[in-house]
Design brief:
This protein is α+β, with helices and mostly antiparallel strands. The chain is built from 1 helix and 4 strands. It has a 4-stranded antiparallel beta sheet with strand order 1-2-3-4, with helices on one face. The longest helix is centred in the C-terminal third of the chain and has 14 residues, at 56-69. The chain is globular, with a radius of gyration of 12 Å. The chain starts with 16 loop residues before the first strand and ends in a 9-residue tail after the last helix. 21% of the residues are buried.
Length: 78
């Protein structure tokens, strides 16, 4: 079974992202925001709540749940 590199350079995260989850096939699900204005977005399938109407905990829980079931591959960077 191939291994997944567990090393992620946090300096490479987009501005504003404070929590990042890895979906089943490797796409990232990012959480950003502050106060009670957080949102999450899957960078593989584009699912998420980009409106920023969640607490940090709610956004992290939803992002983690999505990451656990999403089979989207990471999108190409070029």
């Amino acid at each position: 079974m191939p291994s997944i590199d567990q090393t992620i350079d946090s300096a490479a995260w987009p501005a504003g992202v404070h929590t990042r989850f890895r979906a089943v096939e490797g796409a990232f699900v990012d959480v950003r925001g502050s106060g009670n204005n957080h949102s999450y977005r899957c960078l593989g399938c584009d699912e998420g709540a980009g409106t920023g109407n969640y607490s940090d905990r709610q956004a992290r829980e939803r992002a983690n749940s999505h990451a656990a079931m999403c089979h989207a591959l990471p999108r190409p960077t070029a």
